[in-house]
Design brief:
82 residues, binds iron/sulfur cluster, alpha+beta, 3 helices, two-stranded antiparallel sheet
Length: 82
């Protein structure tokens, strides 16, 4: 899992206070999350930041090739229409 911050961010700084190692400055006009896979401890801090964001701008994202493959495998297991 990685982190994503969308354009709704109002630069309040709450996420940086909670998880300063996961969010940095507002150079893009929004809080900038670290670009890496999160470990379990970081996931907990990230969830706290997500819960504290006043505009729900933070989310988890998983968009790598491994997950895409898993998604395609799941679709193949769906029952076929008669
Ligand atoms: S808590 Fe939400 S609104 Fe505040 S800086 Fe972080 S992402 Fe932006």
């Amino acid at each position: 899992m990685k982190l994503h911050v969308n354009e709704n961010c109002i630069c309040c700084g709450a996420c940086m206070s909670i998880a300063p190692d996961l969010f940095s400055d507002f150079s893009d006009g929004t809080s900038v999350p670290v670009d890496k896979e999160l470990n379990n401890e970081e996931m907990k801090l990230a969830q706290e930041a997500i819960d504290s964001c006043p505009v729900s701008a933070i989310s988890f994202t998983e968009n790598n090739a491994e997950n895409l493959s898993t998604s395609l495998d799941t679709e193949e297991e769906l029952p076929k229409a008669a």
